[in-house]
Design brief:
Strand content: under 5%
Distance between the termini: 140 Å
Order of helices and strands: H
Shape: rod-shaped
Structural class: mainly alpha
Length: 81
């Protein structure tokens, strides 16, 4: 009465196939940044040139300001005489 009933022609159980809801993300290697020596030298030379130009502009501005102050002082003295 409580004995199991087996089928006459036994079939093998189906193979288990594992499926995920989402496919796994593809991992790509991070890009490698290769900086050549020439590029580094160009950036350094550019920085030095820009710094030199800025210094030249600053020195010129100071020189013009000093010259203007001296001329103004000389012209003021001349008007007083």
């Amino acid at each position: 009465m409580f004995l199991p009933k087996y089928p006459d022609n036994p079939t093998p159980p189906p193979a288990h196939t594992h499926t995920t809801a989402e496919p796994a993300p593809v991992r790509r290697p991070a890009p490698q940044i290769s900086v050549s020596t020439g590029a580094v030298a160009a950036v350094l030379v550019g920085g030095v040139v820009l710094t030199a130009l800025l210094a030249a502009v600053a020195v010129t501005a100071i020189s013009v300001a000093v010259a203007a102050a001296v001329l103004r002082s000389m012209l003021r003295e001349q008007h007083r005489r």
